[in-house]
Amino acid sequence: ELKVEQNPLFLSMQEGKNYTIYCNYSTTSDRLYWYRQDPGKSLESLFVLLSNGAVKQEGRLMASLDTKARLSTLHITAAVHDLSATYFCAVDQGGSEKLVFGKGTKLTVNP
Amino acid sequence: GAGVSQSPSNKVTEKGKDVELRCDPISGHTALYWYRQSLGQGLEFLIYFQGNSAPDKSGLPSDRFSAERTGGSVSTLTIQRTQQEDSAVYLCASSPGTVGEQYFGPGTRLTVT
Do B42 and A104 touch (CB under 8 A)? Predict the structure, then answer.
């Protein structure tokens, strides 16, 4: 059974600082997704990582995937308040199209 | 273009009643997914449609839950004899094919009293 673990689950950081959120998964998969969720809102797709070594960047966020280590990272550079949200990683279970989600990382960026 | 839409946005129902939740996927998307989000369980997969067929129903929590999709488009998730533990946000997503990101709708918040 595929398990996806994120850490930390809660992250409070100051504006301007850098930090990394980690996403580990338990079985082989080449497809990993990062989503953002604002309070009371649905999930917004941030990144789709489809191969080992994939790196994608959008603004202050950069995601990478190491399929051999079964690890993805979401790096935040020079955080700003607008990045406050909950971030989920999700992995698709091989042979099935369903996504298995981590528990989410609630990020709070303080002025 | 239009995204995934869901209705109703909020539903309050009494325990034991049946409810129907509707999802309109993005036009042309062949794959449609239902997930449930609750505080205790996080985001859980319920069922997946490819066209009108449901190859994977493994996430439906009990036989009180069923779903159908007609015309390769709209899907309805039905919960019979609702229980308080069914209270959650039900999210629908669609994707253009079997690989790639899933686009989520705004969700239906179900509260069973």
Answer: yes
